[in-house]
Amino acid sequence: MEKREELYAGKAKSVFRTDDPDLFVLVFRDDTSAFDGEKMEQLARKGRVNNQFNAFIMEKLEAAGISTHFEGLLSANESLVKKLDMIPVECVVRNIAAGSLCRRLGVEEGKVLNPPTFELFLKNDALHDPMVNESLAITFGWATEQQLAAMKLLTFQVNDVLKALFDAAGMILVDYKLEFGIDASGQITLGDEFSPDGCRIWDKETRKKMDKDRFRQGLGSVIETYEEVGQRLGISFD
């Protein structure tokens, strides 16, 4: 497998073509951003930590029967992934009230949400990823009704797997976002990544924030805390 030209560079990851048209190389960089790129820094080891964290989570989800684009680790900060036709809508599940939900609805942070909420957001940096609904997604052709139903089902299946995983390690999975795409066989498949950059994680006893909020809120020890989360889950970082 030969790594070729860069196809796409996002805020923290890059995608490269390979000599196989159905496989890409996903590179996790040390770049860190918040507030639509208004706050940006490079944090040493971040790419390595998030790559290996994501690999661990994707393997757990695959073992639970959830199809993902992850094929395997290539290096400390590179993974091999299947090519997907990405759907431009993010799926967000919230188990505990935090972040934008509290700002939008005046809900107190920390309120347990039973049942968990499910939201859709359009992936559009220029529009600041606005919240949308299923009707808008279908009308504008971002996804079909059947695709949205499959995405919602898979998102809650991920919740069942990962809530239990984090709980057993003394942590609360507060909320998270997922992105999906369509693989070569037409199957809805989990893409992008799952790392502390795209979810909220709190210590179960102290409610210490153990995710990207440490960067957003200037709490410090960002990567050290990411590593702590991983180590509690059983990840051995290179």
Supply the CATH class of the largest domain: Alpha Beta
Strand content: 25-35%
The dominant shape is globular
Distance between the termini: 23 Å
Order of helices and strands: EEEEEHEEEHEEHHEEEHH
Structural Rg = 17 Å
**Share of residues in helices:** 25-40%
Task: Give the integer mean of the pLDDT values.
Answer: 97
Q: What CATH architecture of the largest domain would you give?
A: 2-Layer Sandwich
Low-confidence stretches: none
- Helix count, DSSP H or I runs of 4 or more residues: 6
What's the SSE blueprint?
Blueprint: E1 3-9, E2 13-18, E3 23-28, E4 31-34, E5 39-42, H1 46-63, E6 70-75, E7 78-82, E8 85-96, H2 100-105, E9 112-122, E10 131-132, H3 134-139, H4 145-168, E11 171-182, E12 188-190, E13 199-203, H5 213-216, H6 222-233
Antiparallel strand pairs: 1-2, 2-3, 3-7, 4-5, 6-7, 8-9, 8-11, 9-10, 11-12, 11-13
Q: How is this structure best described in words?
A:
With 238 residues, the protein is an alpha+beta fold. It has two domains: 3-82, 2-Layer Sandwich (Phosphorylase Kinase, domain 1), CATH 3.30.200; 85-221, D-amino Acid Aminotransferase, Chain A, domain 1 (2-Layer Sandwich), CATH 3.30.470. Helices cover 29% and strands 35% of the residues. The chain contains six helices and 13 strands. It has helices at residues 46-63, 100-105, 134-139, 145-168, 213-216, 222-233; strands at 3-9, 13-18, 23-28, 31-34, 39-42, 70-75, 78-82, 85-96, 112-122, 131-132, 171-182, 188-190, 199-203. Strands 8, 9, 10, 11, 12 and 13 form a six-stranded antiparallel sheet that branches. A five-stranded antiparallel sheet has the order 1-2-3-7-6. Helix 1 (46-63) runs parallel beside helix 6. The longest helix has 24 residues, at 145-168. It is globular and about 50 Å long. The protein starts with a strand and ends in a 5-residue tail after the last helix. The mean pLDDT is 97.
